[in-house]
Queue: 2 jobs
Job 1
Amino acid sequence: MIYSGAPAAPRVFDSVLRGLLASPDAVTYRPRMKAEPDRETARESIIEFRNVGYRLPNGQPLLEGLNLAVGRGETLVLLGRSGAGKTTALKLINRLLNPSGGEILVEGKSTCSWDAIALRRHIGYVIQEIGLFPHFTIEQNVSLVPRLERWPVDRTSARVNELLNLMRLDPAKFSKRYPHELSGGQRQRVGIARALAVDPPILLMDEPFGALDPLTRGELHKEFRQLQRRLEKTIVIVTHDVGESLLLSTRIALLDAGKLTGVFSVKEFLAAREPVAAAYVANFRMYEEAERTNEPD
Ligand SMILES: Nc1ncnc2c1ncn2[C@@H]1O[C@H](COP(=O)(O)OP(=O)(O)OP(=O)(O)O)[C@@H](O)[C@H]1O
Ligand SMILES: [Mg+2]
């Protein structure tokens, strides 16, 4: 389905589409640092990494020994430096990558036992580069999976309108536009709307609010928190941003150089002695304290 007059689709978009159409080819739960009962694992696990490793074909490890459980309705933030392995961990959940060792369970079933297409349609995925198809209108982008699922036309267009309204994008204004006719923040909203289209119980979001101006990001954060309460999804969200982690997460999983450094509640993270977590918090505080420390002498 190529629409004339629209820009050609780069390869990345083809690969996203292929992922939804066809089969391709830990975040661990570690015991808490303190010997206290774990509130979150009392919930039913929806995603579970069991001793998961991922290596490149040349043998280079990108992830090692990940153990992590994400409970139903939880919003787990994966925090870590660029190159830590966050996107790799997300791709293992929806089987865009297969683990080299260990296994990932989604709703109690190994990802290898899931039909890959069924698994991907069960999981909304907001990809790091937003990943809208440039040759599809906004309406066609958001309705991609409903159309693949052969929803009737009127149900599909009602759903697109509902989602665009949910993301505060007026359907009358935006449906027929192409992605290049939107601002970055509007495109990010469309990416989120597309991931929610068939109401998947699980949502993977890879830096969904990155590259936005702080005010727009703040507005989207607010909307996201309302959505969390209303939609009750199980969400894994990748970010570099400590403020975002504190605001949106039920827990923070810290990845460093392919390994899980720890899993923390917001309160635990702010008080953590673990060096990487403490470095993040110190960095965050530096900006918080700028008002006081940047006074002229
Ligand atoms: N196909 C690949 N071939 C070679 N190296 C790869 C490949 N995929 C990922 N890597 C490397 O693996 C590491 C982890 O990549 P990943 O994309 O998971 O990082 P990330 O934590 O998401 O980083 P960022 O925050 O920058 O998005 C990086 O050093 C990256 O360069
Ligand atoms: Mg990434």
Job 2
Amino acid sequence: MRRLTAVLVASLLALVISTGPAAAHAKLESMTPADGSSMPAPPTKVVLTFNEPVGSNGTQIQVKSPAGVNVATGAPQVLDSTVTQPVGAMIEAGRYQVEARVVSADGHPITVSASFTITHAGHAPDAPPVDPTAQPPSNSNTVTVVAMCLVMLVVVALAIVIVRRRPAR
Ligand SMILES: [Cu+2]
């Protein structure tokens, strides 16, 4: 009899543990850019879509560059079941890791771990415009940096032209 009681208690506990919290927690349904995807141009935002509305308090999203720099800028915007995180310039090509902490409707936090890869580095948008009439700076390091920026600008411009020229699907 004691054994039967123990088995009953154990089954009840198992039932509560397995059906209780799991049913109520938000789950990531999709991400834009898609988890595991690879693209040439850096996105300007990361959008997480969950299977149910999530809370706006306590939401934290980090988008880490291959070197570990967080490129997320500003607060994530929560609208029903989607969370939009603006991201700044992605000046490194490679894999970006998305680490999100989102609060489920029942108040419990969940964490999301996903990633995407960009094959072409972006360019810092707040870089000063290049003045073609400017005197070449005396510092050779500065010249190198400016030259690299110019090359990046050309690459990005080319990428935009190529993407625009592709016929619509
Ligand atoms: Cu919960």
